């Protein structure tokens, strides 16, 4: 589960964790530079975030996963699916302009 811009995972998903954890193994990180998460690199793009989350899940032994995302997390989820198609099984994007055009 990937939170939106300006938030953190605890604040964004506090009401969903109880019921969802009964049916799913949940991984709910603070994206880098949000909440108490940080990195010593200046890179702050959605691509960098996607790489960090996907590589983190791989290190935890997660071989395949679905991503639920809100707002800014939707951009990160999109890049995770683009960059790691063998890892990402499904993507849910809520309230995000990832597919928006000028029209």
From TrEMBL:
SUPFAM superfamilies to which the protein is assigned, alphabetical: alpha/beta-Hydrolases
InterPro entries, alphabetized: AB_hydrolase_1, AB_hydrolase_fold, Meta-cleavage_hydrolase
Pfam families, sorted: Abhydrolase_1
Residues covered by the AB hydrolase-1 domain: 1-95
Gene3D superfamilies: alpha/beta hydrolase
Domain of life assignment: Eukaryota
Protein name: AB hydrolase-1 domain-containing protein
């Amino acid at each position: 589960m990937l939170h939106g811009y300006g938030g953190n995972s605890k604040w964004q998903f506090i009401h969903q964790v109880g019921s969802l954890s009964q049916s799913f193994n949940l991984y709910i990180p603070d994206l880098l530079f949000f909440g108490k998460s940080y990195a010593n690199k200046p890179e702050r793009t959605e691509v960098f975030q996607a790489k960090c989350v996907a590589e983190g899940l791989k290190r935890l032994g997660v071989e395949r996963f679905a991503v639920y995302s809100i707002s800014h997390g939707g951009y990160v989820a999109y890049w995770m699916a683009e960059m790691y198609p063998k890892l990402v099984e499904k993507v849910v994007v809520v309230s995000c302009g990832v597919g928006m055009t000028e029209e």
